[in-house]
Amino acid sequence: MSKINLNDVTFHYETTLPPVIEHQTLSFDDGTFNLLTGPSGTGKSTLLKLIAGLYPAFMGEAIGTITVNDQPVVDLPASKRAQLVAMMFQNPSQQFAMETPRNELIFTLENLQVPADKMDARVSDALDFAGVTDFADRRFTTLSGGEQQKVSLAVIVALNAEVILLDEPFANIDPDARLFLLTQLTTLVKKYHKTIIVADHDLSDYEPLIDQLYIFDGERHQVHQADAGEAQTRFAAFEQRQHQPAPIALPVAELSPEFTLDGFTVGHQTPLINDASLNIPQDKFVVLTGANGTGKSTLFDALVKLQTYTGSLQWQGQEISKLRARKYAQHVALVFQQAASQFLTITVAEEIALSLKYQQTAAWTQSRIDATLASLDLAGRDDQVVYSLSEGQKKKLQVLLMLIMDVPTLLLDEPLTGLDLVSAHTVLKLLRHAVLEEHHTVLMITHQLTDVSQYADYHLHLNHHQLSYEASL
Amino acid sequence: MNPTILLILVLFVGVEISFTSVIWANVIIIAISVLVMLRHRAPILSYVRLLLVPLIPAVGIWFSIRYFSTAQSVHFAWVMATRIYAYAFLGGLFTFSTTTEKTLASLEQNAHIPSTFVYGMLGAFNFVPKIRSEVKIIRASAQMRGINLHFWSPQLLFKAIVAALNWSENLAEAMTSHGFTENAPRTHRTVIHIPWWNYAITAVSVIGLQLILFSPLK
Amino acid sequence: MQQKAAHSNRWHLRDVILITITSIFMGIIFFVTGFLYNGLTLALTPLGMAPFANDILLGLWTMAGPLAAFMLQKVGAATIGELLASAVEAIIGGQWGPSTLISGFVQGFGSELGFTFTLYRRYDMASLSLSALTTAIVTFAWDLVRSGYAAYHPWMIVALFITRFISMWVFGALLVSAVTKLLDRSHLLDRRHA
């Protein structure tokens, strides 16, 4: 029996833009665990928000009907809809109105007009189920991404919604929290007969859990249900892509260090990296890996003075906390995980002109830039607003802008996310070139490891609060 | 006291002393504020802060009125200086009598301020630490591109608004999916009442203030 | 069935959150001007010119109104925007000073008039400049009473008013216009206006 029905749905963010979802007819069965996958930026999130009734109320224009339990979702007031369709969002920290988990649950039940004397039992049940009881009265600002997603689950349980949607919920959270949440979600399907759709580009651990796999095809702006054969192929392909470690050299002691860690500890509540001591060599391409939420970005923040630390962290023999930010920024720069953080103007051409104006050497000429833009498939977009680029295009432009600056040491936080394999190779080639020909130092965080070992010199791995060099990548 | 009643009282007193010139009224307001703060066990540092923060403006205005105004009135110089302190201490009185959350909850239930404003503001305040770090990120990322942003740089405010646009969209969607319906009726786990003595205190305070303002006291 | 988000004069949840977050940003960015204000006051006190410190910087604290009016283009946006900003100031500054909320309302009402006089049809340098003028006039009338400005020599009153207007024009019109030009060109507000 189908729980959710889409009937010839077309959605545009703006009339002038091409549709994100086109003539979509689709259904999801009652009491099933469904996985929706596809490249990032195709519209998985849009589809979930349409089912949740958030779009087109908040954004865009839609044609066609979407029903849950045969009721059109757009016709329901939010307080009724929330009891039918609940959602866990991509950014853990941007989904709560109140200061503490308990108050957020009370806020939710007040919205549903639950009588005051019925609230406490429902709140404590939900907190228990989601494993939140221990930190129910701590402020959200002190909770990790994983803890915040557990609170989001608690809210969903308190809402007692029949349909649960999860939009890339594990992007910023540690593996233990991910496993816990997946287990509890399975319980919700098996024991409480909920219908779940998870949008995720990472397929690991799902195969035994799910009933159906749905695939978003970005070219056709449509989702289709994969049959058993296709699902199997997908999972197999994903597994293969995951594991093909190639051998890589270990750094030798005589290399001159760019960064030196000595008893270095960093973290908000509990240490993420604890008492680390090692060197990161100069003029090399080093790749930093580790599970989500373990502290890779926090290390980068510390390296560019955006995060305080204890112990010692030195750049070319000088303690980083004591350096002047403005001068240091001319030696060590960060390519931010959020590409848009790097932009300062409006169009692609203006951004490039800005980098050219302030570049430290004349290594990048206009003709070299034009050639590189072409190789990155960014040519002819001079007048495009940077914020309207796709995530992958933003990433590519961002890397190019920072390469033009010609800063001696570049830290890159997941520059390959959302890039197709060809583009990823082009970016890696550019970075390799900067190391070999221009004697720059490159330190890059990535989850996408395919072929990276062909370009990198060393592999640094973060695990159990410790950093160490690995002999394979 | 109920935060809404207290806020109305404090606003009323604030406006009235703006239109009158009685030093004693300001001094008594400061004294009562100190008493209330003592009762709420305000830390010593908060008194020091309340004495120091208005010091420069108060001295500035005292000098301006005393020596550079048309009448050069000593009395009016003291009125203005004590008025600045009275504003500050009224703030201290309110701050230590309640919390932001209680105030907003009371404004929703007792003053019937639309819930959209109450919960919109509450939700936005969760972003304070994120906003602090975002300002640092915007500045740092500009420095990495060779540009130093100042508080008057349009790019700094523009980038701030870009972040605000993103976050407000995300939070509003999440709150809606948590069942929040703009200005629709809600139940309340804790119902906030206004005890009768709140009205009594308010009446006594207002009458007392009139007696001082319209007495021979200067 | 064609569905589309509508534009109205009502304040929606995301508008309140947007303006509040923007105000918190401004509070944090302009925090440094607190020291500037104290320094200026100290320097000007021996000359009896202390009130100028306030008027030179006042434009910064009245920016939230015109900015909100521009971003939301609603009737009442300047008033409510400035009132929200003053509530933010009260909460972040840890001081629920009554004067903060009262000034916030007076300032918001002042900047609102500029947009009212242009019938909420113009959102450009002309309406921003007019709004800077109305804000200067309204807040000045309030300060004649509240801050004792009426006691000063006529030449000083005129000079204070001119200083205030320039400050409000520089920050409330020039800077706001520069920021909103960037916003317009980025088209980031378009989806919300749809």
Automatic annotation (TrEMBL), chain B:
Pfam families: CbiQ. This is Energy-coupling factor transporter transmembrane protein EcfT. Keywords: Membrane, Transmembrane, Transmembrane helix. Its main location: membrane. The chain crosses the membrane at residues 6-38, 50-69, 75-96, 196-217. InterPro entries: ABC/ECF_trnsptr_transmembrane. The lineage of its organism: Bacteria, Bacillati, Bacillota, Bacilli, Lactobacillales. The keyword Lyase does not apply. It is a multi-pass membrane protein.
Automatic annotation (TrEMBL), chain C:
The keyword DNA-binding does not apply. Pfam families: ABC_cobalt (PF09819). InterPro entries: ABC_thiamin-permease_prd. It comes from the Bacteria. The keyword 4Fe-4S does not apply. Keywords: Membrane, Transmembrane, Transmembrane helix. The chain crosses the membrane at residues 16-37, 49-72, 125-145, 157-183. This is ABC transporter permease. It comes from Furfurilactobacillus milii.
